[in-house]
């Protein structure tokens, strides 16, 4: 299980990184889940005009709390940043190959971050068994050659996932848009653990796996409604906001 945070607007990247560190180390944990510490690597994707396709990426297999200062993020000036801190559900799925954001390259790349365990989604891909559920979920929920996600279609795909998993919470990023998928399998235990929260100020909006008081007072945060696809436009001429 993992922690996610996305920021858009005018913000200090170092503040968002610190918020991700706090979540990864359990400092902001206030939920019913079994996992407070997320030590199995981390990664980030942000908008950067001189990067390929306008998106820069960082991955590190070390715990976020031990390696945040070795990343370039604290000095970044950007209007979009997403960070993922990982707790590997299966010990075999560790290392750089499994460190988010997962990436699909090509002429139109996608980056993907997932919080949850979906060991049955491989069935919908025609696979005999699951190898890495987050990678399979990426291939399923963002089909190849896709350039834009549609909320109705995405929710239909989520509803078709066979029972046996937990959450499909995710951040998917393309050159033109980023998306927050907020969805948990009906009947899943630890509903509070998987409930994401958002806060909007005059300068920025943040969506995160936990309420982070360092970014805004707790009373200003609100939980996201279940079963949502939120879109962040990343066109170069826009000031991105969640719609």
From TrEMBL:
Gene3D superfamilies in the cross-refs: Glutamine Phosphoribosylpyrophosphate, subunit 1, domain 1
Protein's name in the database: Glutamine amidotransferase
Source organism of the structure: Streptantibioticus parmotrematis
Lineage: Bacteria, Bacillati, Actinomycetota, Actinomycetes, Kitasatosporales
């Amino acid at each position: 299980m993992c922690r996610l945070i996305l920021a858009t607007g005018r913000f200090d990247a170092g503040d968002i990184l610190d918020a991700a560190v706090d979540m990864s180390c359990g400092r902001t944990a206030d939920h019913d889940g079994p996992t407070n510490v997320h030590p199995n690597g981390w990664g980030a994707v942000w908008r950067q005009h001189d990067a390929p396709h306008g998106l820069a990426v960082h991955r590190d297999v070390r715990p976020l709390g031990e390696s945040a200062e070795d990343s370039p993020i604290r000095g970044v000036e950007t209007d979009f940043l997403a960070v993922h801190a990982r707790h590997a559900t299966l010990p075999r799925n560790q290392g750089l190959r499994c460190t988010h954001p997962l990436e699909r390259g090509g002429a139109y790349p996608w980056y993907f971050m997932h919080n949850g365990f979906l060991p049955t989604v491989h069935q919908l891909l025609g696979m005999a068994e699951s190898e890495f559920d987050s990678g399979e979920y990426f291939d399923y929920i963002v089909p190849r050659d896709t350039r834009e996600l549609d909320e109705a279609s995405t929710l239909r795909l989520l509803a078709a996932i066979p029972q046996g998993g937990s959450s499909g919470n995710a951040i998917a990023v393309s050159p033109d848009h980023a998306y927050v998928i907020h969805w948990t399998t009906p009947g899943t235990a630890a509903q509070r653990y998987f409930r994401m929260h958002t806060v909007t100020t005059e300068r920025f909006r943040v969506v995160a796996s936990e309420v982070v008081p360092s970014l805004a007072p707790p009373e200003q945060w609100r939980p996201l409604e279940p079963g949502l696809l939120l879109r962040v436009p990343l066109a170069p001429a826009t000031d991105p906001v969640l719609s």
